[in-house]
Design a protein that fits this description.
This is AI-2E family transporter. It is built from 12 helices and no strands. By secondary structure, it is mainly α. The longest helix has 41 residues.
């Protein structure tokens, strides 16, 4: 390697590290904008012949924000109300005196659980008040990240195709291998988005309808929780409708409990198999264990948004390895 090439590689390395330093604080918002841009791009392409490049890139963002923000805001208010009501119901039905008697019987010490819980809540409140600066820092970071997300989403829709062409020219790969890599990345992203995320939302809504039909209390709260649970393999929405069926049977609503169980086993469970096979080829899907690692690792690395981004990142990694395996010898 001559000095010129070495110096050029040094500049690339240093500039890459500096770019990573700039991008890292908002990496989850950047990846989220690319992911949502991928989902909205077909809509943008359909609108472009009629509305032009700029308007067709902006309109899907407005529609997506309206369809996401408005229902989530309304649902959040109701969910909070349901959560408060649920906690009150638990407080009303949970006899702390019985627990105190059991503790006294086995230990000989009288414990005031209500006072202990009250003290714990008070200490937590003081800790939160003492860390208001951190709370304000988190809020400002979220606001900046959300603003960045919206702007990036617009430019992903508007200039994303040009960026893909540019990146293919920059990467030191033969054109046919670069095309194969991008095709594989697109297929894997579609597999994760439509095969896991969209199916999770559909399953949660279907199960929520069943909960409302049989009269399960706080149904909207549990539907909201199922959107997150449904992404987890094995556990899924059964974690809600299964115990709910048992709850109904134990409270005297045997018919409703059986009906909910049958509904869950048939329509909800079959919807998973049907939708995954219809929306995306199963050969492109990820192993449930890999999805679980992506979900938990994404949450740990990026917070709540990592719940959706984590599996996509692992899917892209799998696609890259597949292209490497099939084309390494020809490079």
């Amino acid at each position: 390697m001559n000095q010129r090439r070495g110096f050029l590689l040094l500049i690339i390395t240093v500039s890459s590290l500096l770019a990573l330093l700039v991008l890292l604080p908002f990496v989850e918002y950047i990846i989220a904008s690319v992911l949502l841009g991928y989902v909205l791009y077909p809509m943008k392409e359909r609108l472009r012949p009629y509305l032009g490049e700029s308007v067709s890139s902006f309109l899907p963002i407005v529609l997506a924000l309206f369809l996401l923000v408005v229902p989530l805001t309304v649902a959040s208010v109701v969910v909070v109300q349901d959560a408060v009501e649920l906690s009150r119901n638990i407080d009303a039905t949970f006899d702390v005196t019985a627990v105190e008697d059991v503790v006294y019987e086995y230990t000989g010490d009288r414990v005031d659980i209500s006072e202990t819980l009250g003290s714990a809540v008070e200490r937590i409140g003081r800790a939160l008040v003492g860390s208001l600066s951190q709370v304000f820092g988190l809020v400002s970071r979220v606001l900046l990240g959300t603003t960045l997300f919206i702007f990036l989403l617009y430019y992903v829709l508007k200039d994303g195709e040009e960026f893909v062409v540019w990146s293919k020219d920059v990467f030191p790969l033969p054109p046919e291998i670069a095309d194969r890599l991008y095709d594989r990345l697109g297929e894997m992203t579609a597999a994760v988005v439509y095969g896991h995320l969209l199916v999770a939302v559909v399953q949660s809504v279907l199960t929520g309808v069943g909960l409302v039909a049989v009269g399960v209390p706080n149904a909207l709260f549990w539907t909201f929780m199922m959107v997150f649970l449904a992404i987890l393999p094995i556990v899924g929405v059964f974690f809600v409708w299964g115990p709910a069926s048992v709850y109904l049977a134990l409270t005297g609503e045997v018919g409703a409990g059986v009906a909910l169980a049958v509904y869950g086993v048939t329509l909800v469970s079959l919807s998973d198999n049907y939708l995954r096979s219809y929306l995306v080829d199963r050969d492109m899907g990820l192993n449930p264990g890999v999805v679980l690692v992506g979900v938990l690792g994404g949450i740990y690395a990026m917070g709540v948004i990592g719940l959706f981004i984590g599996p996509v990142i692992l899917g892209a990694f799998k696609a890259t390895l597949a292209v490497y395996k099939n084309n390494y010898e020809s490079l």
